[in-house]
Design a protein that fits this description.
Layout (H helix, E strand, L loop, with lengths): L8 H20 L5 H17 L3 H25 L3 H17 L3 H17 L14 H4 L11 H8 L5 E4 L6 E6 L2 E7 L9 E8 L2 E6 L3
Parallel strand pairs: 3-5
Antiparallel strand pairs: 1-2, 1-4, 2-3, 4-5
Helix pairs in contact: 1-2, 1-5, 3-4, 4-5
Length: about 210
């Protein structure tokens, strides 16, 4: 049997790396489905090349994409990292089970892990979907809508320092002067218990940054 370039372990890394990066990237940035199409094509190709039985092929695809769905749900609704962790574990499990050898599996799951991390770099190059802002408040309480009293209360927070009581990815819960608020970072991952500073306020949308003190 002739060997193919796709039999090389490093190719499994490349396929799972770009497939995962594009799929998660489609969630993060607005590419009108292009990244999603590329990601689905690459991941489907990975399972197709490594799994002979149709039933197993479909099962592994389902497990992988359920993992991706859990990451989306965590980011849009739950936002505590639990479902995202389970989702990534599901993607890794499907990828590892489909690999023909242990060594190939290590390459493949490394591709998923590295691709997941590198997907956030796309935020520096492409326009964000701003999907996380929908959690904080889609209908913003701006001055022109008459929410003056609430605006004044929140505007006093500008320049105040506090602490993140959950991870901000980029939305989470912060505490300032003993009061809890929903805060959002500017596409920056801020870890729990980090010191934060309020940069600006628009209605009840509190934009924060990581503070050194």
């Amino acid at each position: 049997m002739e060997s193919s370039i796709f039999d090389a372990d490093w190719m499994l890394f490349a396929i799972t790396f770009f497939g995962t990066m594009f799929l998660i990237g489609e969630i993060l940035v607005n590419m009108r489905g292009l990244f999603g199409l590329l990601g689905i094509s690459l991941i489907t190709f990975y399972f197709y090349e490594n799994i002979v039985e149709p039933g197993t092929f479909i099962l592994m695809l389902i497990i992988y994409f359920i993992g991706l769905l859990l990451i989306i749900i965590d980011g849009k609704i739950i936002n505590d990292g639990t479902l995202a962790t389970l989702g990534l574990a599901s993607m890794l499990l499907a990828t590892a089970l489909a690999a023909p050898t242990i060594n190939a599996g290590l390459y493949a799951i490394t591709g998923v892990l590295v691709g997941s991390g590198c997907s956030f770099l796309l935020l520096k190059r492409f326009k964000s979907r701003n999907m996380w802002e929908k959690i904080a408040l889609k209908d913003r309480m701006t001055k022109d809508r008459g929410y003056n009293s609430m605006n004044k209360e929140y505007e006093k927070l500008v320049g105040e320092k506090g602490k993140a009581i959950t991870d901000l990815r980029p939305v989470g819960t912060i505490t300032i002067n003993g009061q809890d608020y929903s805060g959002i970072s500017n596409a920056q991952w801020i870890e729990k218990d980090s010191s934060i500073e309020v940069v600006s306020v628009n209605g009840t949308r509190i934009l924060v940054k990581k503070s050194k003190s």
